[in-house]
Specification:
Layout lengths: L3 H7 L4 H8 L3 H9 L6 H11 L3 H5 L4 H17 L12 H18 L15 H5 L1 H8 L2 H4 L1 H8 L7 H18 L6 H19 L1 E5 L6 E5 L15
Antiparallel strand pairs: 1-2
Amino acid sequence: MNRIKQLRQERQLSQRKLGEIINASNQAVSAYESGIRNPKEETWKALADFFGVSVPYLQGAYSEDEIIKIAQTTYKDRFYNSGSYQTSILNDMRRIDTFTYLCDDLFIYTGSVPYNVKKEEAILSVKQVENFEFWKNEIKGFFISSVAMKWLINKPYLNASRDDVIDLLIDVISAQLAHNPFFIGEEQELGEDRLKKRKNFIEQYTFVKSDKESKAEYAYVDFKRQPHPLDGKEYR
């Protein structure tokens, strides 16, 4: 669905007034907004110029800021662990968890978060979670490297859902961590070293516990305990 109605209402314009601005009838504007009729190329351009947006965005493509906001709010869903997940992802909390874990690795890799932060997951501070500029800085490079990300911005007829955007971000971040095209030489070595230190840091606080009923053993992380040496032994 295009954004003509949304942008018109944000400007507090009637269909008649918008029609006067672009030299069209209010009936035509109504048809454009409902999708019954598509504007001509020059009308799309006139509308985009008036609203100060790109034609693809006006036609329904995502903006960079919208994609970044989806990343931020998805992470916030897991960070605050409130259970009030977005409607589009109610039945797939694993998507949120996967996205959060990958973001954490990315933040460690880039040095945005120290490797020895005593949180097992959702490792950002509240200030970082709520800071849109922080997210913009972390994700902006993906719009350059990923063709699929460019499609979300430039191709309005993909009809990509919020879940599609999250899945794409998961794929893109995974690829970045695997290949790291933005980080070469010393930067790449530093990033890999940070991830290795993070893994060792978590292992030092990983302990084994037995379940009395099932008699099964499982590992857990407890930052309140003293760290143990990395000697290959199990600590309880």
